[in-house]
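Input (structure):
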């Protein structure tokens, strides 16, 4: 319930700012090939368009029956072939934790999804060095693959990070939030959280979650940096871009 209220509040804030501003050229990228990651933002895209803003949406699930010169969609639905190889139910039945699934499968898959975005023939023309495309803001999903945020530097625009599942600890930490390994709000820790846990359980949670952050910062983040620079050239640290610094 709280998450729904927070999401609604965010959407209302975006619409209020957009209402009082001149029309923006918005680059929106939701690269996760999952309907549940796409559908929450459709109303936002349509409402922004109805208010006169120009939108370029890169998505795995294009909105049907859109016929407007101010609303362009680039289809990257081929990413579903990658995502379908991830059998979450089987992994959970085998006893894999959520953090194990993210480290072993989820993060590599987000790299492949970002690759599909950068490699898209139509989108390459948009961010090519000789392209005259200009945007005022980038709206993109903050998950486990930050390579996409390099586009904010390419177009020299600020970012609004989106999530349909609640902000994960990685992005919470990057944006200056607290890392709370045993708190119920840290959903990646699943049923290991609680308010009155024994010391050894809390210690286990601390080591587990900080190990996860260490792997991301020291292994996966450099890979994302190289991926973004492969297509966009030299970039500041992706973490700095995510912070709008």
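Output (sequence):
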């Amino acid at each position: 319930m709280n998450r729904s209220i927070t999401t609604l509040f965010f959407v209302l804030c975006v619409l209020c700012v957009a209402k009082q501003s001149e029309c923006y050229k918005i680059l929106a990228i939701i690269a996760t090939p999952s309907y549940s990651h796409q559908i929450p933002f459709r109303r936002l895209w349509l409402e922004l368009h109805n208010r006169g803003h120009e939108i370029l949406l890169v998505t795995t699930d294009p909105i049907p029956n859109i016929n407007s010169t101010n609303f362009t969609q680039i289809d990257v639905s081929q990413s579903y072939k990658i995502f379908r190889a991830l059998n979450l139910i089987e992994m959970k039945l085998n006893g894999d934790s959520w953090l194990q699934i993210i480290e072993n499968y989820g993060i590599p898959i987000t790299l492949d999804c970002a690759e599909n975005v950068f490699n898209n023939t139509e989108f390459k023309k948009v961010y090519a060095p000789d392209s005259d495309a200009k945007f005022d803001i980038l709206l993109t999903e903050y998950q486990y693959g930050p390579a996409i945020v390099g586009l904010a530097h390419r177009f020299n625009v600020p970012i609004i990070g989106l999530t349909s599942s609640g902000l994960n600890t990685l992005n919470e930490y990057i944006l200056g939030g607290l890392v709370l390994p045993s708190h119920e709000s840290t959903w990646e820790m699943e049923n290991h959280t609680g308010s009155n846990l024994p010391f050894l359980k809390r210690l286990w949670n601390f080591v587990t979650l900080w190990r996860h952050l260490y792997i991301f910062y020291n292994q996966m983040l450099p890979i994302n940096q190289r991926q973004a620079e492969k297509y966009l050239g030299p970039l500041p640290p992706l973490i700095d871009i995510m912070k709008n610094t």
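Notes: The chain has a mean pLDDT of 88. The chain is about 50% helix and 10% strand.
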